[in-house]
């Protein structure tokens, strides 16, 4: 039984697009301070779940609560492909955007804010590139810059969608060290990941998805060959065009 207070609670939540469920009937809790990997094959619903937590998607049914937390307490890093890299701003300014919560959108940076930005850039080893346009960075540098921005956001809950995609091995190690630091600081961290070995090595808890929860708990108990095989089969078999899932149909028949 979990003893710590939940950070996020799911109450039979179904999330989807245009009334089509993408991930359904999720119930459970994520404790404060948990370091949780969200794992599953392509199309399993990992991104959808993170979008539901951050409020980009409203549940089609059920509900989701952020216990005692507001949206401002959540920092969210979408997948690289969803981020516009051609945006014409400097690395420094992009990282400084992580401070908007504390300084407001339109106030100028004070000396100590600038120091905080430099400190975050130093942590990810990008100080020398502070004046470069973001579009000129390599994949690994770009992701390090986004992590520096997350550092400044100082959020209680951090959601990362495939944070190591298109990132070199050295950078992955550095970013994992930052995630572990957030974990030690007591923040709740969720990361959607596809590299099972990475998850086994660094994430104590795992939520295995295949359009629904296949298994959820301690990583070694969740990532068994049987569960992984089940998650592949279930994801492949899921009917994306269904307006309503079989479980809801059963319920309707029972209550008719
Ligand atoms: P994962 O992150 O595990 O790869 P996703 O959450 O991206 O899975 O996708 C789950 C399902 O939702 C997939 O069938 C995908 O095609 C669908 N989906 C994702 N984004 C959208 C969208 N913007 N509009 C319609 N369907 C979407």
From TrEMBL:
GO molecular function terms attached to this record: ATP binding; ATP hydrolysis activity
One biological process term in Gene Ontology: zinc ion transport
Annotated ranges, domain ABC transporter: 8-236
InterPro entries reported in the protein's UniProt record: AAA+_ATPase (IPR003593), ABC_transporter-like_ATP-bd (IPR003439), ABC_transporter-like_CS (IPR017871), AztA-like (IPR047748), Metal_Ion_Import_ABC (IPR050153), P-loop_NTPase (IPR027417)
Cited SMART domains: AAA
Keywords linked to the UniProt accession: ATP-binding, Ion transport, Nucleotide-binding, Transport, Zinc, Zinc transport
Domain of life, source organism: Bacteria
PANTHER family documented for this protein: IRON TRANSPORT SYSTEM ATP-BINDING PROTEIN HI_0361-RELATED, METAL TRANSPORT SYSTEM ATP-BINDING PROTEIN TM_0124-RELATED
Family listed: Belongs to the ABC transporter superfamily.
Record-linked NCBIfam families: AztA (NF040873)
Name of this protein: ABC transporter
Gene source species: Methyloceanibacter superfactus
Classification lineage: Bacteria, Pseudomonadati, Pseudomonadota, Alphaproteobacteria, Hyphomicrobiales
